[in-house]
Write a structure and sequence with these properties.
The chain is of the alpha/beta class and 373 residues long. Helices cover 54% and strands 8% of the residues. It is built from 15 helices and five strands. It has a five-stranded mixed β-sheet, sandwiched between helices. The longest helix has 32 residues, at 146-177.
Length: 373
């Protein structure tokens, strides 16, 4: 019997050889497409992948029962298949699916019921969940095979990946047409500010600060540690903040940056004090970067940390203010900074920086350079 990894790879190869033609009939293909192309909620795609995989791996299972809590002999752990096999598969092939198991989302978490048509999964968009239940039922009633469901899901994902890559290539070609145009520091500030104003940009302040330090690292003698995954907890990753700096050639953290897309509070400062106290060695700076207004009382409280810690400076800074100051302080490095920011944005996984945000940045930069040229 083939292993789950082998089943996934076989389905991928099968899908890749037939990208232009669906593996199921039109009505069911439309249902699968409606689930897989719902970018606002990727849990449904992972549910289809892991459920179809389990059914292929063990045909005796009921694809509608991805919960061992159901207690039936034909029930299974969808989460185990999802985390143990689907995660590695989508990462290996860079497919446009989120990194988190479907079974941590509210609709699929802590259930013990058969996922049959009519079950209220309480999620958005509701039509996606209706389609999922109908597709699982179609496999159960042998209207389509689990193999075709898996392969068609993967075919659409590969197609979406190629569409995304093509869109980025077009925008990058447009950028190269204006590559001789050098933006001013203020134009770059406006560009970054426009990008940060878009929805779901919580990762971008981290990338902006990382780009700044990467650009001038040799001059400062400081090095930014590799960025942790966007959803990695500090305690799990060993990081103090979202971005930790060390002296070049050394391991001890000398400065740490923590990004907030909300106002920084006194509670945030107290939490940072606990992390500073638990650090192996006293750090020089702990910096909060926020995209929201800074309360004077919080800034004043942060200024007391130097005395409380015996030498660690703490400050709360505005993100755009930080970028503006950096670009004017290191004016000759403004273009390398912008290129580095773009590199970091483009190379973040879609779970941290969406395809839409990547395309938006390139479009904004192209518009800015075209106007400046």
């Amino acid at each position: 019997m083939a292993t789950p990894d082998q089943i996934l790879e076989k389905a991928y190869d099968r899908a890749a050889k037939q990208l232009s033609r669906p593996f199921v009939k039109k009505v069911r293909q439309a249902k699968i497409e409606s689930v897989v192309r719902t970018k606002s909620n990727r849990a449904g795609t992972r549910l289809l992948l892991c459920s179809a995989l389990a059914k292929i791996h063990n045909p005796a299972l009921d694809i509608r029962k991805p919960y061992t809590e159901i207690g039936d002999d034909d029930a299974y752990s969808g989460r185990s298949y999802d985390e143990s096999f689907v995660t590695g598969f989508i990462n290996a092939h860079h497919l446009p699916v989120n990194q988190t198991t479907a079974f941590l989302t509210p609709a699929f978490r802590n259930r013990d019921a058969v996922l049959a048509p009519g079950v209220n999964l309480v999620g958005r968009p509701a039509s996606m969940y209706v389609a999922i239940l109908e597709l699982l039922d179609d496999v159960h009633r042998k209207r389509i095979s689990a193999s075709d469901l898996l392969t068609e899901t993967i075919r659409i994902l590969i197609t979406m990946k190629e569409e995304d890559e093509h869109a980025l290539r077009v925008l990058l070609q447009q950028q190269r047409a204006n590559e001789q145009v050098v933006l001013s520091a203020e134009q770059i500030v406006v560009l970054i500010e426009q990008h940060l104003r878009l929805p779901n940009t919580s990762r971008l302040p981290v990338l902006a600060v990382a780009a700044a330090y990467d650009t001038v690292s040799p001059m400062l003698g400081e090095h930014a540690r590799s960025l942790q995954a966007h959803n990695a907890a500090d305690r799990q990753s060993g990081a103090l903040g979202d971005l930790d700096l060390t002296l070049i050639g050394e391991d001890d953290v000398v400065a740490s940056y923590e990004m907030k897309t909300r106002r920084v509070s006194r509670d945030d400062i107290d939490a940072a004090l606990h992390k500073i106290a638990s650090a192996p060695k006293r750090i020089d700076h702990y910096v909060f970067i926020t995209t929201e207004r800074i309360d004077i009382s919080v800034q004043e409280y942060a200024s007391t940390v130097y005395a409380l810690t015996g030498g660690t400076e703490m400050v709360v800074l505005d993100c755009i203010g930080f970028v503006r100051h950096f670009l004017h302080l290191f004016h000759r490095f403004r273009s390398p900074f912008l290129d580095r920011y773009q590199y970091l944005v483009m190379n973040e996984p879609a779970s941290a920086v969406s395809q839409e945000l990547k395309q938006a940045f390139l479009a904004l930069r192209n518009a800015m350079t075209s106007a400046a040229g």
